[in-house]
């Protein structure tokens, strides 16, 4: 650890403005969004008995998170699903002012109607009932042995009809990358960023020269390296060659120890993660970097943001910063019923504007009083009344038990009462800081 980074940590403990400043990855137009407005990203996860849910892959969803599909018979960039086919699988229609960008293109249909396509494949909804649950393993399904919709890990086939498959979000398929550089989902940086292939450490771009050169390692390019896509090669003052991305030199920070670390933003305020795609994030939300605490999702005034999920028995790891994970559908099962009028005295909803729209990992729920509330990865978001300072997490790892009665007047549905008894669940709800990990 460099002396300068140690001083940054000390300043952060004393509550410096740097440590309390909400970090958000570059949100300029130079970094495209991961999805257009109205299209969501949904993590497909699998419950492992008495353990945290395991991340499998990432799919595309409509504004309500329902699966989007692609059709095997569609030629690249065109839709062949018309007539009765389009009634069963309605095309995902784009708004009149929608513009193509990156992997997202627009396919013309009848008249001036246009349909969204991802990586050349037109996207569709399904008019019937989507298969229950999410695919979990090759040759298996979602724990329901009576469900004939089978998921294949290689092709991600999981649909109600042959020839249709759930649309996967896979930006790494189209981004041209030099050897030694990979693209990874970096939730703590709110996007897909560049990492080193050998260690997985995130790469940064700096707004100025490194203030402490010993704290940063340039991403060196081989002698025979040539420009590739958005990557160019610059010659350093010492004669060595360094990779640059979109015109900015790439570095790693020596005090990062995992791809979830973004400690370089503490050491140099103009440092930011080198993102290829950024996720939508509401104006009222930021990701703060807190020394000795790690990245944390907060409101704009620094209050930690929490999710309320169904309790499930889990051995170990619950108190780690990525130690409590849950599936999207399990989170959605709680909904607004999980926190009633009495509950909101302690857990305060993170409200959304009346015109808020779904995008990326975010969607909008309507509370019983008509107010809109932000939903992140399926879970409604709250702040905790007993957090009074930026970075406090007094509400983390709290659980509450809901008891039923003989008359059935207590609705236990939010706690898992609507789940198959084969699931490992209890009549309780669990509060945790919003998860920033895959």
Question: Could you characterize the architecture of this molecule?
Answer:
The chain is mainly beta and 438 residues long. Helices cover 7% and strands 28% of the residues. The chain contains 5 helices and 27 strands. It has helices at residues 3-13, 17-20, 84-88, 264-267, 328-332, and strands at residues 22-23, 40-46, 54-61, 69-71, 104-108, 114-118, 121-122, 164-166, 181-186, 191-196, 204-206, 216-218, 231-235, 241-245, 248-249, 251-253, 271-273, 275-278, 285-290, 294-299, 306-310, 347-349, 362-366, 372-376, 379-384, 398-401, 428-433. Residues 1-27 and 136-156 have low confidence and may be disordered.
Oligomer: single chain
Q: Tell me the total number of β-strands.
A: 27
User: Tell me about the biggest sheet?
Assistant: 7 strands, antiparallel
- Class of secondary structure makeup: mainly beta
The residue ranges in which pLDDT falls below 50 over 5 or more consecutive positions are: 1-27, 136-156
Residues in helices, as a percent range: under 10%
Give the distance, in angstroms, between the N- and C-terminal Cα atoms: 27 Å
The whole-number mean of residue pLDDT values reads 84
Radius of gyration of CA atoms, rounded to a whole number: 23 Å
User: How much of the residues is beta strand, in percent?
Assistant: 25-35%
Shape summary: globular
**Distinct helical segment count:** 5
